[in-house]
Design a protein that fits this description.
The chain is α+β, with helices and mostly antiparallel strands. Among the domains are: 143-319, Jelly Rolls (Sandwich), CATH 2.60.120.1440; 541-727, no CATH class. The chain contains 26 helices and 34 strands. The chain has an 18-stranded antiparallel beta sheet, with helices on both faces. α6 (72-84) packs across α7 (86-92), α18 (567-581) runs antiparallel to α19 and α19 packs antiparallel against α20 (626-647). The longest helix has 23 residues, at 26-48. The chain is flat, with a radius of gyration of 36 Å.
Length: 830
Amino acid sequence: MTPENSFQDPALEQALAEIRDEAMDPAVVEAAANRVWARLTEAAGQSSGEPIRGCAGFQALLADYRAGRLPQGRAMLVEDHLHSCVACRHVYEGKVVTMPAPRPAARPAMRYSNTVRWAAAAVVVIAAAGTWTVIHNSGAPGGRARVEVVSGALYRVAADGTLHPLAGGQNLPEGVEIRTAKDSDALLRLADGSQLELRERSSLVTTASANDVTIRLGRGSVMVEAAKRRKGHLFVDTGDCRVAVTGTIFGVSAGVKGSRVSVVQGEVHVAQGSGDKVLHRGDQTVTGAGMDPEPVRDDIAWSRNRDRYYALLADLRASLERIHLPDLRYQSDLLNRLPTSTVLYASIPNLGDYLSQAQAVLDRKIAESPELAPFWNERGAKMQPAIDTLRAASGYLGAEIAVVALAGADGKPQPPVFVSQLKRDGFADFLKQRGLPLTVEERRGLVAFGPDRAAVEDLVPAFDLPFGGFEGTPFYQRIAQVYREGAGLLICADLSRMTQDEHTAGMRYFVAQEKQVNQQMETRAALSFDPARSHLAAWLADPAPMGSLDYVSPEAATVAAFVVRDPVVIADQLAGVVQTTSAGLGAQGDLRNDLAHSLGGEFAVSLDGPLMPVPSWKLVVEVYDPPRLQAVFARLVADANRRAAQSGGHPIRMAQETVDGRTYYTINSPALGPLAEGHYTFADGYMIAAPSRMLVKRALDLKAAGTSITRSERFMALTPRDHYANFSAVLYQNLGASLGPLAGMFSGMAGAHRGQPGQPSPVDRLGNLKPSLIAAYGAPDRITVASSGDILGSRLEALLTGDPSGWAADSIPLSQLLGTGGRKPAYKEK
């Protein structure tokens, strides 16, 4: 019987449980304890002589200890003391020559707690039953844990709060707090073979119940290598979350602001409130709203086993990182073979090699990783037929596959058709064997196929010509420009030739692409339009500095900031709103003019603080004429109060107060409560508004200290790489930390709608949103939107982490080309 399996034997576990649960006669227990203690005392007296009094007593024995003249029992006492006492160890090593003055120590009275008596009685009973030999040979000689290694100082905290040093080899009783000192760490081993590595200034308590063991982490950090268990679980409880594992390597930290869980290998279940998260290798979650995730590699850097853990984390990720999308395409052999009537063109690289490499990595890792095989057999294997079909089909096609739609006789786009070069014959037979009802036409080295026969037949005549006629159109020139810059996943639409409505009037071309540049995915979309446009796109100005962001903190949950080409546009919109809600206000032209001449054209709105009980919104507006804008507010409030008096509604109160030389304004309705209250002030050409004066003051302090969101590394790391120095608009979200508690609450209310077992529900995903940023750049004839992201790679990642349905939907992410795909959880290691 191996040490690992000895504690998993059902018969042995039952025998031990019966021994633990047996009701013993107190007299028998007392007698057994007295006999054991008497023998221990007798043995100690024979080998030790006089009691050793404090550090001075041990230091007096060091010379005989070096010479080997001490009896075995006393030598063991000296060795144990040197492991736990730094001062005496320095004397022994010759680093310190002075000895501390001896301190009198009272001889302990021969009175022992019930715990000691029970422990002694248990030794006698187990020895009599013949099970002590089995336990001893199993490597777990008693207690719930044993100290393996101590670096520095490790203490047992007694019931009265006193600290008792511990050394390597000592057994630890259950339910007793263990604590590491500063600059110290320790390695503990539980009776089931699990290993605990305790960081400095950390404390924990281990308890057992039935087949489960719980580690209560009071503070600090612990790395856990959980042993395989036939039944029961190992739990780590930090107070605000509970981690359930078996056969897993992971780290847990508990601090004032919350807890952090990082997974190195295997799977853990983290329960927080009424919610539950499933984490896999490289995943991480935090419980506190004030805590940010950090790379798992950094979170476990303190561990003495970090190099081994790094290897476990890096192995799978490195294999996938070596798989790259096909190289960018700088020309197309399909584009100039298309007809003039082409109004939709989408292009993707042939993903056959990509899928083959990914499949090879998966097969190898499944064979090497016991924790991955059950997942793949249960979920991932369902994707195998789809992967096989895609890979097999790619073997017939060229390096590029296009999706093309022509304009029909009525001006509407026809159904899309797939177009590619042919690498070998037999593609039509392949589709027929697979039972795919597609029309296939082959001409002059090209193949067109799709579900609509008429659309395929309308397209293929252009293949008979050296040039299909498309190269003479402006739409072709716009697409060719993208190829010259390097094309990845690409979709283009000629909106001017499609059916126009009030929302698309004046629009010309839409071009979106995603490509891999310097091992980073970039998503970019551009909308071209008539410069005389009058729709929403007319709002955005050319990229310009945004001083409004100086008042937003790095902890903001959401930020939307933009600069407009002409404040009159905003004034017209606001005046229209006022006109529909205010009667008898007076000349709307005056209101429009006052607004237009007051505003500077830059705006920022954010959620910058707690969401409950009152959302911490913040509005920052560039203002050129504060008195004129304040007069507009006064007119609006007066008009609202007149209407309230006529209809019996709630009046609005407007007040101002000067504090530390600055004037603060308040608009509220006491009857409506704090949700209908706003405070604002004017500073440095901006109006700063928030639901409380404290938040307004905090925004001013951010600006003065220069610690706004634009100084945040997290915010700046998300900005797309391009030649622009500023934005026309920027949309940023970091909702994961703010929505986490709410997601947990609603997840509990969702009940049966949580989704499939082992997968987070849509509600849970709200609490795990990863920060994202989208930038927009205005120009006289186009708007470009850009964001960083790895759409196709994230779908492979989703496949490995338990969401094959999401991967399947986006394996060829044409539907995602309009922007960055769904963001991964906050706890995901990148």
